[in-house]
């Protein structure tokens, strides 16, 4: 058990669990958190899981934990860990089952006032056009060959088929295409699950949300992103669907044997890993990249359906119903990146699970227009509460492997949410607050209630105070579609 | 109700955790399956019963639990089937499974995966017990 007294306070927003806390830790744990959020985090096992993560072979620097942390399965949500490439390990559980679960933000020139009378109709059209719900397939049925192309090309697959613009692809992390994806390392079972699900939202905490840009904090960055106060924006939150879940399941299984072969001792079997330069590690990297590209393409196809819905409902009613891409970013991913570690620039695999890449100004890999302001970071709240647009900073590059938070983070268990919140009551309350809700399951809605999450403003104040991201804009929801 | 076999939900911040107990391994598997379906809010269609058979080779009891439940999840997504009757036989490191069920009429929530997180099948006075964490 980790107690508050085990943490050393570095600053108002930074704490450390030293390597001496437990004998099997290879690096210390650095926690970006305010005192209040730290006390909230002590209610679950997030920090114990971060200590477990600090035992992975080949780690460099610190294991990092973001203020939206909560207990996961093995690796904490809100965790970041960098392992030396290529001889350090890669751990599928430290990336998650929903590989490249992420967020896409689209901006618009539509004012809230002109759209307000049609928001209910818009929510219904989004719900109809964008398939959501448990195990739901979409409008597309890909052949195995077509799926393999998608796995390699990611957003570029969508571009070739008319679901994307060049600007969409450019404004996606890694241009929506991770290099090194190889479908031969993906199981037939994963392919079978993936073929009917391209362009689907899924269930759980995934959503499509129409937002009002409520307040701008960084006018220059907001202008570059095309975000204006009083205008609408839209977020898509989802991942690689059954395809990614199966890829992760397959390799967590395979790696159960790999840890024995490589003599790796771990405190939790869900943290299983393999050296990146081993056959198992290379195979997982190639398969994980396929799932990441699947997710980029999935969100791109959904963005296409979203644009159709906007055109259908608002096309003749507002001056311009168009939606431009602000950015698309992953928050469950493993990426080979170059970072400064102990004075040297080295290649590492940055595992981000419930954490977002947040590259600062001037860094390679950002679209030209974002080089000066830094990479957009998308932090969705819970439905009914705000979401944030941030940018990465030099501080995130120096102190958090170019990473920051990914959302509000849960604070209440699903079972407690189900017992204390009635889905239908919640829907009525949100509708009363002017938020149009379309949800496939009332039980699912209750589990995702705002009361089950931390205060997203406090989370963002923490990363901003710690200097690992900078505020750009605050968004508030006006329509939410959930699976 | 069978006092020696059952399941109950355990508090978990983000995911679902089940405590499952049974007199023996095959009953533990069946109870875990029932618990997983109960958490998902699955309702079977009133349709002709269907049977599926599969075999699994396993290294240890925990891996068997993960593989068995993952197999059922795959049937759910691939054929939209769920099961409520099980005939399971373990012979050494092999499981022979015969399961009966029907198409899924309704499902409230999705299970993404069965995890190995802190999973340990333990011997108890009444037989065996285990905690299973599902990614949802």
Short characterization:
The complex is a heterodimer of chains A (483) and B (136). Helices cover 34% and strands 26% of the residues of chain A. By secondary structure, chain A is α+β, with helices and mostly antiparallel strands.
Q: Biggest sheet of chain A, open or closed, and with what strands and sense?
A: 8 strands, mixed
CATH architecture of chain B: 3-Layer(bab) Sandwich
Quick one: overall form of chain A? globular
**Helical content class of chain B:** 25-40%
Per CATH, the superfamily of chain A is tRNA-splicing ligase RtcB
Sequence of secondary-structure elements of chain B? EEHEEHEEEEE
**Estimated radius of gyration of chain A:** 21 Å
Unreliable spans of chain A are none
Strand content of chain A: 25-35%
> How many domains comprise the coordinates of chain B?
1
Q: What's the level 1 CATH class of chain A?
A: Alpha Beta
In CATH, the architecture of chain A is Alpha-Beta Complex
| Tally of separate helices of chain B | 2
Spans where pLDDT lies below 50 across 5 or more residues of chain B: none
Q: What's the rounded overall pLDDT mean of chain A?
A: 95
CATH class membership of chain B: Alpha Beta
**Class by helix and strand content of chain A?**
alpha+beta
Walk me through what this model shows.
The complex is a heterodimer of chains A (483) and B (136). Chain A is an alpha+beta fold and 483 residues long. Chain A has one domain: tRNA-splicing ligase RtcB. In chain A, 34% of the residues lie in helices and 26% in strands. In chain A, strands 7, 8, 9, 11, 15, 16, 18 and 19 form an eight-stranded mixed β-sheet that branches. Chain A has a seven-stranded mixed β-sheet with strand order 1-2-3-4-5-13-12, with helices on both faces. Chain A has a two-stranded antiparallel ribbon with strand order 6-10. The longest helix of chain A has 36 residues, at 279-314. The mean pLDDT of chain A is 95. Chain B has 136 residues and is an alpha+beta fold. Chain B has a single domain, classed as Archease, Possible Chaperone, Chain: A, domain 1, CATH 3.55.10.10. Helix content of chain B is 26%, strand content 44%. In chain B, the strands form two sheets. In chain B, strands 1, 2, 7, 8 and 9 form a five-stranded antiparallel β-sheet that branches. In chain B, a hairpin with a 5-residue loop joins strand 1 (6-10) and strand 2 (16-22). The longest helix of chain B is centred in the middle third of the chain and has 19 residues, at 61-79. The relative contact order of chain B is 0.27. The mean pLDDT of chain B is 94. At the A-B interface, strand 4, helix 8, helix 10, helix 13 and helix 15 of A face helix 2 and strand 7 of B.
């Amino acid at each position: 058990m980790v107690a508050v007294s085990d943490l050393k306070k570095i600053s108002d927003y930074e704490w450390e669990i030293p390597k001496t806390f437990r004998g099997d830790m290879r690096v210390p744990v650095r926690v970006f958190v305010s005192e209040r959020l730290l006390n909230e985090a002590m209610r679950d096992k997030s920090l114990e899981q971060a200590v477990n993560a600090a035992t992975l072979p080949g780690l460099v620097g610190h294991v990092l934990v973001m203020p939206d942390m909560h207990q996961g399965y093995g690796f904490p949500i809100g965790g970041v860990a960098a392992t030396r490439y290529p001889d350090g390990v890669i751990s599928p559980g430290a990336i998650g089952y929903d590989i490249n679960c992420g967020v896409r933000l689209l901006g618009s020139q539509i004012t809230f006032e002109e759209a307000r009378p049609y928001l209910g109709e818009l929510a219904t059209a989004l719900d109809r056009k964008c398939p959501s719900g448990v195990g739901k397939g979409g409008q597309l049925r890909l052949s195995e060959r077509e799926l393999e192309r998608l796995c390699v090309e990611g957003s570029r697959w969508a571009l070739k088929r008319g679901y994307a613009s060049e600007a969409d692809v450019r404004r996606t992390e890694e241009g929506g295409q991770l290099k090194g994806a190889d479908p031969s390392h993906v199981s037939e079972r994963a392919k079978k699950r993936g073929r009917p699900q391209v362009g689907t939202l899924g269930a759980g905490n995934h959503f499509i949300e129409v937002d009002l840009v409520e307040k701008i904090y960084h006018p220059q960055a907001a202008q570059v992103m095309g975000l204006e106060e009083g205008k609408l924006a839209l977020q898509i939150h989802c991942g690689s669907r059954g395809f990614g879940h199966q890829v992760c399941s397959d390799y967590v299984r395979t790696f159960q044997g790999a840890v024995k072969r490589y003599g790796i001792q771990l405190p939790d079997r869900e943290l299983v890993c393999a050296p990146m330069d081993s056959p198992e590690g290379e195979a997982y990297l190639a398969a994980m990249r396929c799932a990441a590209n699947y997710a980029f393409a999935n969100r791109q196809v959904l963005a296409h359906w979203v644009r159709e819905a906007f055109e259908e409902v608002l096309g003749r009613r507002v001056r311009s119903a168009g939606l431009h891409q602000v950015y698309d970013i992953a928050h469950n991913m493993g990426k080979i990146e170059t970072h400064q570690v102990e004075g040297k620039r080295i290649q590492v695999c940055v595992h981000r699970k419930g954490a977002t890449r947040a590259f600062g100004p001037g860094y390679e890999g950002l679209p030209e227009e974002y080089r000066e302001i830094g990479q957009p970071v998308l932090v969705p709240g819970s439905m009914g509460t705000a979401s944030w647009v941030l940018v990465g900073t030099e501080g995130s590059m120096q102190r958090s492997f170019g990473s920051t938070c990914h959302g509000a983070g849960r604070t209440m268990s699903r079972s407690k949410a189900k017992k204390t919140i009635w889905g239908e009551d919640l829907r009525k309350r949100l509708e009363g607050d002017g938020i149009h809700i379309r949800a496939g399951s009332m039980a699912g809605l209750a589990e995702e209630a705002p009361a089950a999450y931390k205060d997203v403003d406090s989370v963002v104040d923490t990363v901003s105070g710690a200097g690992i991201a900078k505020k750009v804009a605050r968004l508030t929801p006006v329509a939410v579609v959930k699976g | 109700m069978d006092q020696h076999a059952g399941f109950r939900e355990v508090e978990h911040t983000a995911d679902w955790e089940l405590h499952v107990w049974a007199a023996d391994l095959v009953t533990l598997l069946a109870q875990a399956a029932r618990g997983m379906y109960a958490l998902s809010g699955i309702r079977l269609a009133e349709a002709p019963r269907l049977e599926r058979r599969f075999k699994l080779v396993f290294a240890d009891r925990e891996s068997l639990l993960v593989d068995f439940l993952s197999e059922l999840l795959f049937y759910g997504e691939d054929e939209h089937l769920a099961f409520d009757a099980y005939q399971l036989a373990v012979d050494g490191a092999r499981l022979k499974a015969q399961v009966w069920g029907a198409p899924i009429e309704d499902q409230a929530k999705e299970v993404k995966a069965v995890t190995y997180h802190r999973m340990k099948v333990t011997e108890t006075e009444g037989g065996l017990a285990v905690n299973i964490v599902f990614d949802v």
